[in-house]
Amino acid sequence: MPEAPDQSDVLHVGDEVTGSFRCAECDLLITSPTESDGVLVLPSCPLCHSESWRRVGA
Minimal CB count within 10 Å: which of 7, 11, 13, 44? Predict the structure, then answer.
């Protein structure tokens, strides 16, 4: 079953990512570190505890 178009870019807690992301619920911005390998393991949102994130920019 295909995902809804607005859900295709949603990432979840535990995903390893690089770049900038906004919480899907409260819009909090987080960015992966620039040092070392730059990989960020997505946490639950520290403000609203949501487990979904969306990528910012291209």
Answer: 7
**Nearest CA-CA partner of 33 in 45, 22, 20:** 20
- The pLDDT tens digits of the residues spanning 1-58 come to 444 444 558 999 999 999 999 999 999 999 999 887 889 999 999 999 999 999 997 5
Decide if 32 contacts 7 (C-beta within 8 A): no
21: burial class by Cβ within 10 Å (0-12, 13-18, 19+)?
Answer: buried
Quickly tell me which residue has 């393991």 as its tokens: 41
Per-residue burial over 25-41, b if 16 or more Cβ lie within 10 Å, else e, is eeeeebebeeeeeeebe
